[in-house]
Amino acid sequence: SFAEVDQIFGTENVRPGYDILKKRYEGGDKSSELLWRLAKFCHELACRTTDKGKKKELILEGWEYVLVLRSNESGGMTKPRA
Q1: Does residue 42 belong to any structural domain of this protein?
Q2: Residue 36: CB partners within 8 Å, gap ≥ 6?
């Protein structure tokens, strides 16, 4: 269930939610429910950092989850240029 993670999103500290999702992803969960949440958390974390390098890293990481999701659904999408 993603109920715990969904409650964390939008709070002051979203990092624990990201960490929970990332652990599930690294454990082999590639479900659409997980992937879109990971992308959403990456975006949220990117919006909250002032470090340009970290912001870019999080945005690209989130985009990778979107690519996996789109690939699972439709067979492909192009990667953005850095």
Answers
A1: yes
A2: 65, 66, 69
Residue 81 lies in a domain: no
pTM of the model: 0.83
Q: Give the residue numbers spanning the domain of 28.
A: 3-74
Within a domain: residue 25? yes
Give the pLDDT of the chain (82 residues) as one tens digit per residue.
799 999 999 899 999 999 999 999 999 999 999 999 999 999 999 999 999 999 999 999 999 999 999 888 775 444 544 4
> What's the token pair of residue 46?
């990117």
- Please provide the distance, in angstroms rounded to a whole number, between the alpha carbons at the two ends of the chain: 34
Give a yes or no: residue 27 inside a domain.
Answer: yes
